[in-house]
Amino acid sequence: MREILPGIIVDPEIRGGKPVIKGMRVPVDVLLGKLAGGATYEEMMQEYDLTREQIFAALRYAAAVLSEERVRAIL
């Protein structure tokens, strides 16, 4: 297990190594997809037994990953 950002871990034995919330088996991409689909923080907290800080950790992870992404525009 390796913590790649505070609150986010990767472990080949958990969800095939996908980033998950530390101490949980909830993949970051699932949380982001549900939030993007309109779920509220409160719904996510209840459905997955998460804290608001854990949801923020997933959002910070997504922001960090996207900040490193480079896209070449082809015209």
Automatic annotation (TrEMBL):
List, alphabetically, the SUPFAM superfamilies matched.
Homeodomain-like
Question: Organism's domain of life?
Answer: Bacteria
Q: What is the name of this protein?
A: DUF433 domain-containing protein
What is the scientific name of the source organism?
Ammonifex thiophilus
InterPro entries found in the cross-reference section = DUF433, Homeodomain-like_sf, WH-like_DNA-bd_sf
